[in-house]
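Quick one: structure tokens for this chain, please?
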Amino acid sequence: MDILKQMLANLSNFALSVLGKLLFALIIFLVGRQLIKLVKRMFERSRAAKNLNESAAGFISSAISITANLILVLTVVSVLGVPMTSIVALLGSAGLAIGLALQGGLSNFAGGVMILIFRPFDVGDYIVTGGVEGTVTKVSVFYTTLTTPDNKCIVVPNSTVSNSTITNVSAEDERRVDIAVSVPAGVDVEEVKKALTAAAEGVNVTDREAPTAILVGFGTGSYNFEMRAWCRNAEYWDVRFALLVNIPEKLEKAGIGIAKSAVVVTTKDK
């Protein structure tokens, strides 16, 4: 009986010890999560974060969260009684396997660092990269998030962005609208130029350069022109659409028979 009582007492002490560790670890985890949220919030509201662009601030915020959560997990594991030497040995032996398995994630992280350092774009810029385009809404540790004009959300791996050609449409205050126009061969070239430049009248173009029309080539039974006009970046699409409406009207008014000659108007930009 004495042996049984001793075993029960030992078992009871062991259970209390385990429960105590679990409870302590749970408290540390919950408190740690709240502290991480607090630190992130303090950073996002700090003067240093406000002096950074949104891309850099978002990246650093994500890095803080990941690093702090990793430290929290290691602390909880240590509180549970797992020796740190065993944890370090386990991480070391698993490091190679994890690295191979997470090659994509590591390359995305490296891509995020490159984006942060060289800053080819900022949050709010409209970019074209890796076969997709949209307004940058977030740059995190691993992904860049874009919103398309029709309000679709595109999440692009940072490795794809950093290894692709990036067209930052929003980089400059002004942008040139180029519209290709094909008219029937044999028309008066100067009359076509006058009609095309007249299409910019009343349209909100800038005075960087006067609207121009140039003959750029010849097709089968056609003369190929390009209409060029500068506008403010934010008004690009409004100006473009207005020109696409005005060009056929001005050509028809000049007697260049749009309908009969099947004038083809194409755009070079997406």
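The chain has nine helices and nine strands.
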